[in-house]
Amino acid sequence: MHAFRQLTVPRDPGLFEASQSVEPGPRRVDDHARLDGDGLAREAVAELETAGHSPNVYVDDELYVKVPTEHSRRYAEFQGLPVTAVGDLVAWLDRPPTKLVAVLDPALVPALRTRLEESFGGRLFVTTSLPHFLELGHPDVSKGTGLAFVTGLLGLDPARVVAFGDGENDLDLLRTAGYGVAVDGSHPALLAEADSTCHGPEREGVAAVMDAYLDSIA
Fold first, then answer.
1. Rounded distance, CA 164 to CA 171, Å?
2. pLDDT-derived band of residue 30, with 50, 70 and 90 as boundaries?
3. In the chain, where are the structural domains located?
4. What is d(CA 153, CA 88) in angstroms, rounded to the nearest whole number?
5. Span 120-132, average pLDDT
6. Which of 50, 54, 76, 104 could form a cystine bridge with 66, CB 3.0-4.6 A?
7. Which of 94, 23, 18, 103 is nearest to 59 (CA)?
8. If phi over 0 gives left and psi between -120 and 50 gives alpha, with beta otherwise, what is residue 169?
9. Which CATH architecture best describes the domain 40-137?
């Protein structure tokens, strides 16, 4: 249902974009959970390389790869980040990364995901953002925990937050927020979880939802 003004939502909810939170004021908050401990990151890199998918590695908000490839170039362009080739990732990795991202044919993602989940169990958080991005991160970190962290800093109740998403990695975000909106074309699991849907960016769906809400309380 796209008619957001027909829905019951908390008055004065917080509004957060699915992939980022913006901290008001000049303060900087660093609650950076990394893949560390017992060589987990190296083990995960090695497993991905054995499977034929050398990952993109985030370390301190910078992007590193083993060698430049078309996949790494496109991923870096998508993220708007420079990418640095370092050769042997396992040998090079001396700082714990934030996450690893394998870029591959969407048809190959399910098998690789199953392999990783069987190999690492609960030691890694494995999810997808886009169909061809398989992401590995800290098991205790998701967009939902990020929302809980930010609302805690701001003294807000997550139940009063409206969250928007479109990917599988937005599931925990929508579950944590008081009201979840899935954008048209979202991952099927997200559509099943959401309280409502909105149009995609080509029709400025998120902005339309926000405008409708503001109109409803004017």
1. 10
2. low
3. 40-137, 142-217
4. 39
5. 89
6. 54
7. 94
8. alpha
9. 2-Layer Sandwich (3.30)
Alpha-carbon gap, residue 116 to 126, rounded angstroms: 8
DSSP letter (8 states) at residue 55: P
Q: At 179, which amino acid appears?
A: Y
Q: Which residues contact 43 (CB under 8 A, 6 or more apart)?
A: 120
Residues in the chain: 218
Q: Which residue, 177, 161, 104, is CA-closest to 135? A: 104
Residue 26 DSSP SS3: coil
C-alpha span between 13 and 50 (Å, rounded): 46
CA dist., res. 159 & res. 171, Å (int): 15
Q: Kindly give, in sequence order, each residue whose CB lies less than 8 Å from that of residue 204, ignoring residues fewer than 6 positions away.
A: none
Q: Which two tokens stand for residue 63?
A: 């992007």
Task: Provide the whole-model pTM.
Answer: 0.76
Q: CA 19, 21, 22: angle at the middle one, nearest 5?
A: 135
Q: Residue 77: which residues within 8 A CB-CB, separation 6 or more?
A: none
Q: Is residue 176 within 8 Å of 158, Cβ to Cβ?
A: yes
The answer for 149, left when phi > 0, alpha when psi is -120 to 50, beta otherwise, is alpha
Kindly report which listed range (35-49, 160-174, 190-204) carries the lowest average pLDDT score.
35-49
Whether the predicted pLDDT of 38 surpasses 60: yes
Please enumerate in sequence order all residues whose Cβ is within 8 A of that of 196, keeping only pairs 6 or more positions apart, or say none. Answer: 1, 2, 4, 7, 179, 180, 181, 182
Tell me which residue of 166, 165, 172, 181 sits closest to 144, measured CA to CA: 172
- Using DSSP's 3-state secondary structure scheme, residue 208 falls into helix
